[in-house]
């Protein structure tokens, strides 16, 4: 793995922990985002797991920048030893200019794949067929954060390199906001997937809006972490 994405990510994580009002909680957030246990991190640092636990809980004085850098490097070392999937995921998001709490994953595929394959990976229920049945990438978006924090111009960047993609909005309750947002975005993506609800809970006007704008619409209620893990297995 090239040094630049890792180094950029290391600086980003270390800065976020250092500037946080609760450094321990922020450290815990990144550790769990990387799916690394306290024990595994402690072993990488050659300390007892209670040291990591004490930092995260605030029982130990907030770590200095040197300790934070060691912890961040340990997280990245563990991920690299596992294949580096988390580093690549965050590097893609950061290179697109988004905060990781807005865009949770952004991928471009080497070749287009059938939309049905994407649905299978995330356990989606199709609601409306779109004009296109293949995608060349996907973007996973925290719906509330995106809608409240992104300008219309920034919204276009969610498409990455191509509109031939699926936009997957997480944390959706009924689907009004993402579907209305799609009305002001031109061109539209090939597919929109709403995460966090069932077909019965979907806003009644969502299917008709998707049909008007020509994109496929689906819903999924899978566990978010498991879904993101399965998305990493796509080509």
List the helices and strands and how they pair.
Layout: H1 3-19, H2 23-33, H3 38-45, H4 49-57, H5 65-81, H6 85-95, E1 103-114, H7 115-122, E2 125-128, E3 134-142, H8 143-149, H9 152-156, E4 166-170, H10 176-183, E5 191-195, H11 206-213, E6 216-220, H12 224-231
Parallel strand pairs: 3-4, 4-5, 5-6
Antiparallel strand pairs: 1-3, 2-6
Helix pairs in contact: 1-2, 1-5, 1-6, 2-4, 3-4, 3-5, 10-11
List the strand order in the largest sheet: 1-3-4-5-6-2
CATH topology of the largest domain: Udp-n-acetylmuramoylalanyl-d-glutamate--2,6- Diaminopimelate Ligase, Chain: A, domain 1
The secondary-structure element order is HHHHHHEHEEHHEHEHEH
Oligomer: single chain
Total number of β-strand segments? 6
Question: Architecture of the largest domain, CATH level 2?
Answer: 3-Layer(aba) Sandwich
Report mean pLDDT, rounded to a whole number. Answer: 86
* Corresponding CATH superfamily of the largest domain: HprK N-terminal domain-like
Major beta sheet summary: 6 strands, mixed
Residue stretches low in confidence (pLDDT < 50, at least 5 long) are none
- The computed structural class is alpha/beta
User: Portion of residues in helices?
Assistant: 40-55%
Strand content: 15-25%
Gap between N and C termini: 18 Å
Number of helices: 12
- Gyration radius from CA atoms, angstroms: 19 Å
CATH class of the largest domain: Alpha Beta
Number of structural units classed as domains: 2
Protein name: XRE family transcriptional regulator
GO molecular function, one term: DNA binding
């Amino acid at each position: 793995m090239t040094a630049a994405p890792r180094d950029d990510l290391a600086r980003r994580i270390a800065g976020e922990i250092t500037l946080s009002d609760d450094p321990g909680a922020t450290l815990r957030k990144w550790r769990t985002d990387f799916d690394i246990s306290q024990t595994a991190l402690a072993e990488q640092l050659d300390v007892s797991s209670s040291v990591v636990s004490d930092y995260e809980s605030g029982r130990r004085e907030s770590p200095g920048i040197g300790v934070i850098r060691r912890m961040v490097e340990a997280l990245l070392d563990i991920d690299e030893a596992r294949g580096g999937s988390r580093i690549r995921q965050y590097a893609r998001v950061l290179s697109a200019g988004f905060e990781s709490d807005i865009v949770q994953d952004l991928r471009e595929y080497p070749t287009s794949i059938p939309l049905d394959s994407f649905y299978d990976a995330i356990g989606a229920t199709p609601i409306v067929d779109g004009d296109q049945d293949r995608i060349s990438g996907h973007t996973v978006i925290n719906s509330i954060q995106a809608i409240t924090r992104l300008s219309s111009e920034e919204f276009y960047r969610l498409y990455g390199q191509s509109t031939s993609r699926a936009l997957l909005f997480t944390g959706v309750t009924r689907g009004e906001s993402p579907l209305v947002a799609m009305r002001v975005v031109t061109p539209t993506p090939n597919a929109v997937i709403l995460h966090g609800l069932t077909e019965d809970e979907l806003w009644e006007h969502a299917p008709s809006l998707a049909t008007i704008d020509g994109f496929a619409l689906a819903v999924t209620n899978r566990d978010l972490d498991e879904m993101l893990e399965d998305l990493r297995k796509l080509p």
